[in-house]
Design brief:
160 residues, alpha+beta, 60s Ribosomal Protein L30, Chain: A, 3 helices
C-alpha cells in the first residue's frame, strides 16, 4: 500500500510547503486525537489560484473554483502535516468546510466543494468519507475565491 503522499503524487499533485500565515493564528492545532486547520486559501507558491481573477465565483468560474478547492485542500493537508509530522497518522477525515465568495445568484457551492471532497476520497479512500458544509459568503481574506477548513482524527500511537 502506498503512502498518503505517494497517493497525492499519483493523483497529479504535490503536497506544498506550508503557506505563510496572514495573521495571528496557527495553521493547525491538535486537540487530543483531532487536528483542526485554520482556513486555507487556494495558494500556490504564495499566489492565489483564482477562477477568472480574484474574488467572486459565478457559474462560468465554477470548474476553475472546483480545481482551486483542491489547491486549498492540499494546503490544509500541509498544515496538518506541520502538526503531526506525517499524513499517515490520519485515521479519518471528519469534516470539510468550504466557504465560497459567491456572485449574487450563485448557488453551486456544493459543486465547488466536490473538488476537494473527491480528492480526499481518492487519497484516503474510506478514511476520506467526511461530513461537509459548503457556504456562500460575500468576501474572503485577500479577496480569495474560497477557503477550506478541515478536521481530522489521528492515531498518534502508530506514527510518532
Amino acid at each position: 500500500m502506498s503512502s498518503i503522499e505517494e497517493k497525492i503524487i499519483k493523483s497529479g499533485y504535490l503536497l506544498p510547503q506550508l503557506p505563510a500565515v496572514a495573521g495571528l493564528y496557527s495553521p493547525a492545532i491538535r486537540s487530543g486525537n483531532l487536528v483542526f486547520t485554520s482556513g486555507q486559501l487556494p495558494l500556490l507558491d504564495g499566489k492565489l489560484i483564482e477562477p477568472g481573477g480574484k474574488g467572486k465565483v459565478n457559474e462560468q468560474g465554477r470548474e476553475d473554483a472546483f480545481n482551486a478547492s483542491r489547491a486549498a485542500l492540499l494546503n490544509a493537508l500541509a498544515a496538518i502535516k506541520s502538526v503531526t509530522g506525517t499524513l499517515e497518522s490520519i485515521e479519518r477525515i471528519v469534516k470539510l468546510t468550504l466557504y465560497v465568495a459567491s456572485d449574487s445568484g450563485f448557488s453551486s457551492q456544493h459543486l465547488v466543494a466536490n473538488g476537494a471532497s473527491s480528492l480526499l476520497l481518492e487519497i484516503f479512500e474510506e478514511r476520506g468519507v467526511h461530513t461537509r458544509s459548503a457556504v456562500g459568503v460575500a468576501e474572503l481574506p485577500l479577496d480569495a475565491s474560497l477557503e477550506i477548513e478541515l478536521i481530522v482524527q489521528c492515531d498518534f500511537s502508530k506514527h510518532s
